[in-house]
Each structure stands twice: as structure tokens, then as C-alpha cells.
Design goal:
The complex is a heterodimer.
Chain A: E1 5-7, E2 10-13, E3 19-24, E4 31-37, E5 44-50, E6 53-56, E7 65-68, E8 75-79, E9 88-95, E10 104-105, E11 109-113
Parallel strand pairs in A: 2-11
Antiparallel strand pairs in A: 1-3, 3-8, 4-5, 4-9, 5-6, 7-8, 9-10, 9-11
Chain B: E1 4-7, E2 10-14, E3 19-25, E4 33-38, E5 45-50, E6 56-59, E7 62-67, E8 72-77, E9 86-90, E10 107-112
Parallel strand pairs in B: 2-10
Antiparallel strand pairs in B: 1-3, 3-8, 4-5, 4-9, 6-7, 7-8, 9-10
The chains are: A mainly beta, B mainly beta.
Amino acid sequence: EAGVVQSPRYKIIEKKQPVAFWCNPISGHNTLYWYRQNLGQGPELLIRYENEEAVDDSQLPKDRFSAERLKGVDSTLKIQPAELGDSAVYLCASSRNWQTNEQFFGPGTRLTVL
Amino acid sequence: QQQVKQSPQSLIVQKGGISIINCAYENTAFDYFPWYQQFPGKGPALLIAIRPDVSEKKEGRFTISFNKSAKQFSLHIMDSQPGDSATYFCAPTGGTSYGKLTFGQGTILTVHP
């Protein structure tokens, strides 16, 4: 089966610019996660979706970050405006459902904010 | 992420040697203890995982040892190979954190030929 697809793979922007990341999870996976991975650190959960509902967004900086999963399939994560500290790898993951512990990760989008 | 601590931060092993990575956690509600492997430019991938009802699980060259009373679990890689060179993360979950992996800081493993 195809894995989690993310685009773009790399993005370089100036601070204060907007940026968006796209994720297509594995077919049939109801749960979708967005993580942020800073250099030399483990991934940190930003938001978790069960189908189209955001069930855990407690770690999402809501003043500048937003996410959507309108039809319960693919998802978009947006930052507006971006700050220097947002430079990181943004990872999308999916699992069959919230009770399934194994999460499958995409390759990530490496964001550089100048 | 103070509730999960990995050690060492980096590890260098000769080919054929044993690699051991440790993970200490604080949340006693955790009930699923996985290790993820990440290669440069890739996302993490599940390597092996254990439930607290057993103390050890082996899959090929990879073994998890679990010590519930000490709130620790470890990854052992036997006969380490250069292809095992990667970053390894423990990422326990469970209880009110169910579905949310709590990643450690990571251990960079380098296996020399």
C-alpha cells in the first residue's frame, strides 16, 4: 500500500510570510496527526484528527497555526505569519484509528524561515 | 518532554557489536512502549513495541526489555550492522495520552564497518 504522502518536501520562506503543508494519509486510516520535529529533537504532536474532527489540538499555537481535514481524508497545516522559530520538519502521520497504536509517518516537510 | 528521557544521546558501535539504548518514563498510565527508527530525510518508522504484561520481546536482532517497577525500557540491537545507523526514539503512550506518542530526545546510533 502507498505510504503517507506529504508536499512540498522543502520550503524556504521569509519571516512573516504564510506557508501551507499538505498531507495525504494511508487509504482507510481514520486518524491523522501533525507533528513538529525541531533539529536534534523528537517529534512533538501539534494536532490529531479523528476523521474530520480535531480531537487534540492542545499543542497547536492557535494564534498563527491552523489545520483542516475537511472530508476526513487529506489535511492541510498552515502557518500565518511564519516566525524564525518555526523552522523545523513538519511530519504527518496516520493510523487506522485512535485505538491502533502504530502510526505511519510521511517523509516530512522541511521548513526554513529566513 | 521531561516525562520521557532517553540515554545515551549518541552511540558508536563496531559492526557485530551490541547496541543498547535506554528510555525512562514518568507516566505510570503508559501501556504501550514502542521504539521508532528514523533515517535522515525520512519519517520515523515503528521498529518494535512491547506491552507491560511481558518483560521482554524479541524480533530478529532487536529486543525490548521492560522493567515496570523501574519505569524503564530498553532497546538491544544484537550483531549491529552499518545499516542500523539511524536515530532511535522511544515513544510510550497510554492512559489519558492514548493515541499520543510521547517521543524521547532520540539516540543517534553509528555502526562502524
